[in-house]
User: Fold these one by one.
Assistant:
Number 1:
Amino acid sequence: MSLGFRDVACVRGGRLLFSHVSFDLAAGDAAIVTGPNGVGKSSLIRIAAGLLAPFEGRVACDGDKALLTEAAALDAERPLVAALRFWASLDRAPDPDARVARAVRALDLDALADIPIRLLSTGQRRRASIARVAASEAPVWLLDEPANGLDSVSVARLEAVIARHRAGGGIALVATHLPLGLPGAQEIAL
Ligand SMILES: Nc1ncnc2c1ncn2[C@@H]1O[C@H](COP(=O)(O)OP(=O)(O)OP(=O)(O)O)[C@@H](O)[C@H]1O
């Protein structure tokens, strides 16, 4: 699996946000996208996800992708585990229930399993969204500000989940303005 940007430029609303962004990520690699508000970090993640076309350059991705953005992308009315199972059952990987169970444990969400998404706190909902990505077991994770709203214990859990993903050969591309421990990650400073 791999994810590569070659001389990628991004234009939004007629304005050039960045250009000549190149990087290559292979199995086990991570990159952190940094820069001030409005520089284009979320836009870069959306380009990697295939939701936004690059203005110039090329993006190559070999492997299924899982995307985390500001929106939880979980059914607000469903209980947490049911909402996660909905997505997990659509993934290519086998055994959705086991994948959800592993992700729920990793994000310490067991006690909230039956609570509807709409009743979760900001940080709990963010942990649920991270669990959605983790449960997908997709090889390429695209995470936009995953640490937003998390307390320090949850940030440590997020770091551990990403580390395990990489140890299993996964790739993580992470936009963040908060410090995040991703050992050996490349920095893409916009
Ligand atoms: N759909 C759009 N149409 C026009 N301009 C847009 C659109 N979406 C985003 N922009 C602009 O693109 C610029 C970059 O936005 P983006 O969300 O990628 O930045 P960011 O680096 O992630 O910012 P932040 O740190 O505040 O999250 C901003 O000036 C924003 O207003």
Number 2:
Amino acid sequence: MADQIHFRKMNGLGNDFVVLDTRVHDVPRDPETIAAIANRQTGIGCDQVIVLEPTSRADMFMRIYNADGSEVGACGNATRCVAALAAVEQERLSVRIETAAGILPAEVGADGMVAVDMGVPRLRWDQIPLDEEFHDTKRIELQLGPIDDPVLHSPAVVNVGNPHCIFFVDDLDAHDLGRFGPLVENFPIFPERANVSLAQVTSDDALKLRTWERGAGLTKACGTAACAAAVSAARRKLTGRTVKVSLPGGDLVIDWREDDDHILMIGPYALDFEGTLPEGLVKQESAPL
Ligand SMILES: N[C@@H](CCC[C@H](N)C(=O)O)C(=O)O
């Protein structure tokens, strides 16, 4: 392991990332080190750690780890950040980013906005995945609170490279997502756990969203949750297929295209600072005998 490991600190609408690059030097990937880097008290602090790797199929491969050290398939906000890095590297505005969930084409605008083709949503119960069969994933039988007067019920579920569960509510602020988010994340119906969101439709082309992220907790924004909520709102005919999604960290535009069913996510990215990982944060490899 190299002594000095360079990192970039980036964010998409306040959803923040430590970005490491295996193409420059060997980087740690064990869950303990990832969690130590992500720790906001003792590490650098972030929602996700992103590890860049070489690939022959796209401009870059991004591996995604949650703050708890778990590896996942998709992160919308980080994809915009990585697309911006790839555009600088490749000296062109159209780039392709490979993830564990597939290759995502992206367009980096001169205005600091990035449009990412997040692919086609997976809607079948076994693609979410759920551990029991549901014919209609727009509204599954799941509720929180008393049987005859549930506080929240009938969420939509979608997989956009990662699993999402979305409760549509009249008032986002009336519910304590920090309290029930971790419960729903770990419900046995979600064998791979789930990202949990509250969505409030405010017009036929706008919604407000708050997300409890699997493996990271409450975040200022979640790009894949915005895609999942937009698709679910359109499937329920609460909105059209193009919506502005307002998150605590700012707005994304999501367009679930009619012609090919792909989801286009448009939003900003930012590079906050660069540095090297402090000594002691990275688990030392044992010395050869
Ligand atoms: N912040 C992300 C999603 C990151 C992964 C998620 N927590 C999961 O476990 O699936 C985004 O912007 O999409």
